[in-house]
Amino acid sequence: LEFCLPQNMANKGPSYGMSRKVQSKIEKKYDKELEEQLVEWITVQCGPDVGRPDRGHLGFQVWLKNGVILSKLVNSLYPDDSKSVRVPENLPSRVFKQMEQVAQFPKAAEDYGVTKTDMFQTVDLFEGKDMVAVQRTLKALGSLAVTKNDGHYCGDPNWFMKKAQEHKREFTENQLQEGKHVIGLQMGSNRGASQASMTGYGEPWQIIS
């Protein structure tokens, strides 16, 4: 017994129209100037042995895809005896090894201080789904490295904006005592306020003609 699908169903494959539209929007947001800036920083930070990518989001993706350059980048922001990510001696050739290497970077970047909202997912880079997110993460990492100013950042500090830092106000003992004195005066003046015109809770107002 044979079962035949209707002709229009048999020839119909999965629809990629919507995903292609979304992908196109993402690619339009890709910042080519930021790409050049990030490439300059990474090559200075990691050294010339990392090479340089072909221009464009595809070249940038292929350059970072196996995760090794990203691992070297985050390691370079730590002292030599305190590396954050293990870097293999030989470049990983198998897909799962490359993805495994890439997956180490977001965790290391988060430990360094990059927020989760600025973090890309492994598939964003490995499958090229969202290279804008990859740019955002690297930009946040660079900004944080410049802000820390701990001697491990290499390159022009003007490549990245410093992150806003919390300003904590510290008061002297005299200022604290003066503050208590002001509060005491305010409480004293409130005690003298007349309550003659106030009514008890739930009591009706008395109107005197």
Automatic annotation (TrEMBL):
The residue ranges of the Calponin-homology (CH) domain are 32-145
Q: Which UniProt keywords apply?
A: Acetylation, Cytoplasm, Muscle protein
Q: List where in the cell it is found.
A: Cytoplasm
Among the Pfam families in the record, one is Calponin
> Which Gene3D superfamilies is this protein grouped with?
Calponin-like domain
Gene Ontology cellular-component terms for this entry are:
cytoplasm
| Similarity section | Belongs to the calponin family.
The protein's name in its UniProt record: Transgelin
